[in-house]
UniProtKB/TrEMBL annotation:
Keywords linked to the UniProt accession: Hydrolase, Protease, Thiol protease, Zymogen
Domain Caspase family p10 residues, every copy: 207-306
Alphabetical list of PROSITE patterns matching this protein: CASPASE_CYS, CASPASE_HIS, CASPASE_P10, CASPASE_P20
Record organism: Ceratitis capitata
Alphabetized Pfam families for the sequence: Peptidase_C14 (PF00656)
Protein name: Caspase-1
Family matches, as CDD domains: CASc
Amino acid sequence: MSDETDFDLFKKSKSKHDKADAAQVVGQSGRAVTAPTNQIVQSRSTHEEFYQNNHPYVGVAVILNHKYVKGQKDRMGTEKDRDTIAETLSLYGFDVRVFNDLTFEKVDAQLKAIAKEDHTSHDCFVLVIMSHGAEGRVFASDMSYPVERLWQPFFGENCASLINKPKIFFIQACRGERLDKPVVFNEFSVMTRQIGPTELDEKPATITYAIPNTADLLVMYSTFEKYYSFRNVENGSWFIQSLCDVFIEAAKKPIAYSEGYDLLRLLTAVNRKVAYEYQSSAKVEVLNQMKEMPNFLSTLTKVFYLKVKSRPGK
């Protein structure tokens, strides 16, 4: 079994890059969104510490899987990732929608269409993409595009029914050419204790708040900025498989159905699993015995407990 990377080393079309960069971000009406200039908003504090997770359904989960990318090496093993993450998210009750090898135009259209849907009865939204990548960019089947195009359709101004709800993005792709070398350390064994979830407060009376358009996002990358990301040609990528392992294990416990698991604790466990348990075994010597460090950036403003729920129609 061999480990590969999801980095783009080859041809780039400037005109196609320019097309993606210059494309205008539009609102749900199909017209360019402009911030209101005559509306008076008042910011105020909130004592809510937790996102609401008592909606009927957990939400929609979109999977963008790219095995064949024009001008790039086929991403062998990605079917394993696609199927495992789809099963994992279905286990939590997500309305899972899988798309294979879409062009950028179709990716953009699908995301905007999903953003137009009514997510009022959902706890959150999830998107997973698996593809080749470069610094600040990810690939559709025909071209690369800025990675932020994945979450722009779900900003508050474009998707009102997901305002004040977590919008979570998992990105399996290289982000550059650097390799993460291993370092070693020694540590004494220590006693550990488990920390249980905090009881959720009841939802307070309705109050109008003003929050940033970019609030409530969490983006988790398979690797550090400017670094390679590894994928095993038989077993799938380190990141996606670790993500699934952690989430599946959590779903086996009764608390996943009653109160749920703190999302950030689950993602930290994913970081730990990839960082400690994986090391590359590649045919190319320069790629051999290398490490990978997933990481996430967050504009979440509250704690989110992810619960296992029934899927719509079940």
